[in-house]
Amino acid sequence: MPSMTPSLTDLLGAPSVVEQALQAAYQAEFDDNDGALPTSYPVMTGVDPHLFGLTVVDGAGQHWSRGDVEVGFGLMSTAKPFTFALVCAAIGVDRVGAEIGLNATGGAYNDPTPVRTGPDGRTNPMVNAGAIATCTRLPGDDREAQWTQLLAGLSAFAGRPLELDQALYENVSATNVRNRELANALADRGLLVGGPDDALELYTRQSCVSTTASDLAVMGATLANGGRNPVTGVQVVPAEVCAPVLAVMITSGLYDTSGEWLYQVRLPAKTGLGGGIVTVIPGRGAIGGFSPLLDAAANTVRGARATMMLVERLGLSLF
């Protein structure tokens, strides 16, 4: 990983440069009502569709924020790169890649087809099937020990104690038909460590951890900073883990629209059904966004568009 520049203002000039770009991106998308609330889980249909927040965190731990950046929502798929990083740190990058897979599927985030009909059933850690398989490789003697390690790791990425959203967890658990189907299919292909019930439980819990746009920015900045949290100074994962995680994010982080995102934004990112988006600027910092209105690929509309505008205004693309 590249060494972290101390702050974005060292790169861009006065703090007002970041402030002005953030304000412009936030204001431009404030009244954007494109997209729809997700219907996969009933609890999500009651979320205020007007919620919108955007945070930038740099290598010095400085924050710039606009909007609803402290409103809680479920991590959902934005948990995936961080769980992937924790598992890579525990058992090694090469082993995780070999056992889970790394290639983009070109399909929806919960598509069972690659598992059922693919040559070996492998996918990648950014889609549900690969993420379920990833969870089973967490360190720990049993499911509860694995969960304790996972929640501690996610909290270390965020720089504060994170908690399970119990209402969301109960709702998701009661309606988790597709993911149960995926877990069973993975078990049939021999891709789980342990049984499908434990795999699904761990995956569901990680998805239902409550987070904020500010948390996502800190978590992303930790990956950008070679695994070291720029706010707490804690080395969450080894530096050598971060580049492989960012590589998978850049190829598969936005599901079947990942190619379009790479073409337009040219930065690693991950979205989630809860309305979150985390975008990593390697060696610089990260952007965390939240808006619950999603597009057809289950990506936050306001969050993605505002991030795109902010990256363009600040010239943060990798190439």
Structural topology:
Blueprint: H1 8-12, H2 15-29, E1 53-58, E2 63-67, E3 73-74, H3 80-91, H4 93-100, H5 113-117, H6 128-135, H7 143-158, E4 163-164, H8 166-174, H9 177-188, H10 196-207, E5 209-211, H11 213-224, H12 239-252, H13 258-264, E6 269-271, E7 276-281, E8 285-290, H14 301-314
Antiparallel strand pairs: 1-2, 1-8, 3-5, 4-5, 6-7, 7-8
Helix pairs in contact: 2-14, 3-4, 3-12, 6-9, 6-10, 7-10, 7-11, 9-10
How would you describe the overall organization of this protein?
With 319 residues, the protein is α+β, with helices and mostly antiparallel strands. It has 2 domains: 8-76 and 211-314, DD-peptidase/beta-lactamase superfamily (Beta-lactamase); 79-207, DD-peptidase/beta-lactamase superfamily (Beta-lactamase), CATH 3.40.710. It is built from 14 helices and 8 strands. It has helices at residues 8-12, 15-29, 80-91, 93-100, 113-117, 128-135, 143-158, 166-174, 177-188, 196-207, 213-224, 239-252, 258-264, 301-314, and strands spanning 53-58, 63-67, 73-74, 163-164, 209-211, 269-271, 276-281, 285-290. The strands form 2 sheets. A 5-stranded antiparallel beta sheet has the order 2-1-8-7-6, with helices on both faces. It has a 3-stranded antiparallel beta sheet with strand order 3-5-4. The longest helix has 16 residues, at 143-158. It is globular, with a radius of gyration of 18 Å. The two termini are 16 Å apart.
